[in-house]
Amino acid sequence: MNAHEDWASTSIPLMAQAAAARFGDAPAVVAGDSVLSYAELGRLTDQAAAAMQAAGVQAGDRVAVWASNRLEWIIAALGLHTAGAALVPVSTRFKPAEAAYILARSRVRLLVVDAGFAGIDPAGLFHQDDADLSALERVVVLPPGEVGNVPNSVSWAEFLGAGESVAPDAVEARRQAVGTDQISDILFTSGTTGAPKGVMMTHGQTLRQFSDWCDFADLRQGDRYLIINPFFHMFGYKAGWLACLMRGATVYPMPVFDVEQVLELVEAERIAVLPGPPTVYQTILDHPSRSDRDLSSLRVAITGAADIPVELIRRMHEELPFERICTGYGLTEAGTCTGTQPGDDPETIAATAGRAMPDLEVRVADGDREAAPGETGEVLVRGFSVMTGYFDDPEATASAVDADGWLHTGDLGIMDERGYLKIAGRIKDMFIVGGFNAYPAEIENTLLGHPGVAQAAVVGVPDERLGEVGQAFIVARPETAVDPDEVIAWCRERMANYKVPRSVVMRESFPLNATGKVMKDELLKSS
Q1: Residues of the chain whose pLDDT is less than 50?
Q2: Dihedral of CA 124/126/130/132: which sign?
Q3: Is residue 477 a contact partner of residue 454, using CB atoms and an 8 Å limit?
Q4: What is the SS3 assignment for 185?
Q5: Please, what is the average pLDDT of the chain?
């Protein structure tokens, strides 16, 4: 299939309707003992869309989903899309104050919530003095959560039941009215460089880009796709269940990563596609019962990070049955921008994020000039997938996207002669040692070459003489003793003096966010 032929001029609800008709009785979602066909998913989507209309949701409204990876997340999202609303995913890691900020900022009208999962507390939303939730008219609580003391709340069953008053023709009319240029979703950035900002994307942008992503990942009709990445993130949502609907694959949602459960599902359900951060594959490779499992169905692995050990990619090739292992680079503001290619060697897969995706331009800039191959600069992206803007924030939009249409990502990168991109970290993460720029990702990659190092994270810390110096946090390989002084001496033999960490702190594990990235601020707090 080709993105431009199939999806560029349609919408997510029309794509989902076509999938229901095309794939019919084929399994769309398998959650525990529940198997839902494409036709049944289409019926439940219409039911949810009718419920949205009965609740007063209008075209252009915002509806939020604050829930774990589960069937109802998909149904709610497709239902609100069919009703013409824009989806606002909320992280399951958020506390009430953080979630309230997102809901208030985007003026969400209705919230679907998985009360109790990972401590989610919808009642706590209404105790935040600095969040105006006056636009929030209805809170829909998913089973098995209790409505309890949540203001303006109804159960999922009550919500769906109210939709029976809406005629099917009214649901269909709303679906047909959703245009390709209409906002499909507002995904908020992580807020690592200030307050989170809402990234707006359209239906056409999303479908065109993630049809290309399906080609990149070699996602096929009938594939069984275990989705570990959270649905509130672009990887779990767009490169996850939405991509499955576009190709007729089967979604296996996993609310919480558990390596034993992953191995059981791969063997029992013949999982073919298993994306995730590098730590997922490392955990599988190191699990004592891996050799006792039949993992022969695994075909595709998709990962991404600035610091993937080459040895991990080699082991994935040699010890797991993956036919395709690919890495890429993306961000909320532009989706997936680069990807490796079939036939790339382990060093390329581990050390780079591949080359530009179809119809996108990616370059590395050093100020006003394009950086030469091998030079470090800011990664810029231009093309159809660049966001339409930050929600209700024209100043931030103008700051991020210049007059020529280039998105300034804030990421540091190095382009090689082949056009392959290597991510060198974030501009804000760079620290300056005695006037020299030091890039944590580069230092971390070197540290991962040490035979005793399993994971590494480097941060800049204040230094009276040099301004800043590097501090390395290390997780040792299993049953391996690592001497911090020896690691520093090892580094001195392999990198310029200003890059060498001045201190090494050992950790049993790293604090990770929901997408598997190391939370360096948490590491610093505990040091």
Answers
A1: 1-5, 192-193
A2: positive
A3: yes
A4: strand
A5: 92
Strands (DSSP E) contained in 402-451 are 407-415, 421-426, 431-433, 436-438
- Return the structure tokens found at 71: 């069937």
Q: Exposure pattern of 484-516 as b/e (b: 16+ CB <10 Å)?
A: eeebeebbeeebeebbbbeebeeeeebeebbbb
- Rounded Cα gap, residues 413 and 378, in angstroms: 6
pTM of structure: 0.86
| Per-position DSSP letters for 92-131, written without gaps between them | TT--HHHHHHHHHHTT-SEEEE-TTGGG--GGGGGG-TT-
Q: Which residues does residue 201 pair with via DSSP β-bridges, in sequence order?
A: 185
Strand (E) or helix (H) holding 243: helix 243-247
pLDDT score of 440: 86
Peptide bond into 144 cis (omega under 30): yes
**Calpha distance 308→438 (Å, rounded):** 19
Q: Read off the pLDDT of residues 265-281 as tens digits, 9 standing for 90 and up.
A: 999 999 999 999 888 99
- Whole-angstrom Cα Rg for the chain: 23
CA distance 80 to 58: 9
Q: Please tell me what DSSP assigns to residue 183.
A: E
Strand 407-415 vs strand 421-426: parallel, antiparallel, or unpaired?
Answer: antiparallel
Q: How far apart are CA 282 and CA 362, in angstroms?
A: 30
Residue with tokens 């399951």, as numbered in its chain = 92
pLDDT digits (tens, 9 = 90+) for 193-241: 457 899 999 999 999 999 999 999 999 999 999 999 999 999 999 999 9
Task: Please state, in angstroms and rounded to a whole number, the distance separating the CA atoms of residues 57 and 75.
Answer: 16
Q: Which amino acid is at 140?
A: V
398 touches 387 (CB < 8 A): no
- Is there a contact between 456 and 444 (Cβ–Cβ < 8 Å)? yes
> Tokens 């692995």 label which residue?
301
pLDDT of residue 114: 97
- How are strands ordered across the β-sheet holding 250-253? 34-37, 27-31, 250-253, 224-227
What lies within 8 Å, CB to CB, of 184 at 6+ separation is 11, 12, 81, 86, 87, 201, 202, 203, 205, 206
